[in-house]
Sequence to fold (284 residues):
Amino acid sequence: MTGGVLPLRYAEDWRSLLFLGTLAGLLAVQWTGLVRHWLMLVPTCALAFVACVIKHNHIHCQTFTGRGWNAAFGHVLGLLTGHPTTAIITAHNVRHHRENQTPRDWVRCSLVGFRWNWLNLLCFPFVAVVRMRRDKPSDLADWRTRAPRVYRQALAERVVLYPTIVTFALLDWRSTLVYLAAPWLFAQWSIIAINLLQHQDCDPRSAHDHSRNVTGRLVNWFVLNNGFHSAHHARPGLHWSRLPAYHRASILPHMRPDLEERSLLAATWRRFFAGGGSRAAGAR
Fold:
């Protein structure tokens, strides 16, 4: 179960560390100019998205056995995604998981309702961020009295991350914009946009039909089983490596058959580009 050399809670997270190390290397060689090619931005953006998935996994199920290791890992994840790790706790753990698809959920699918579902996919992250910025209370003010340990971690992450980004920008703003900010922004757009695929036209009141699942082995190897979304919502603290077994045992026998897809690309094409669309959007 444990990771051996490092105090990992689950040995499977060596894969997470491998992905993060590869991303760090890609960001470093491109920002410094050691190796640059426009094609390198493709795996960099993809791995930046995976880093956001790893951050998501970490705030649900901490990666290391020691508190100091987890605090340091929070800094690493923030630096590799351009966004503090603790900053997603309220929006995701609290609002999305506890208030899924209600007016209190800042990534609820009803935020968009264009006739063309591809336009919903494109605009959804921007609409969600605007709504979040408008309605989100101050986490720091709340945590300072209610959760002082989280408050100290959140403050430390911001003190480390924001000056680091400013320093990179001052040293070389063009490289920072192209080789750091672009992958970060793509990853943030993707991690929010995927909520539409995972929840659009699902039943948030159901114990099993609240999420759409992508269960192909290859895609889930890369996204650390994030495709098993019903299982994740049912057991948010369950480590990502345990989600497929839980899905097969406790979700699949009870859920709507149309809420399981094998291919992420095929599911995205059918839902957003091939005319399948959203029932809610089509009704407008």
About this structure: The CA atoms of residues 27 and 179 lie 6 Å apart. The chain has one domain: 11-207+265-282.
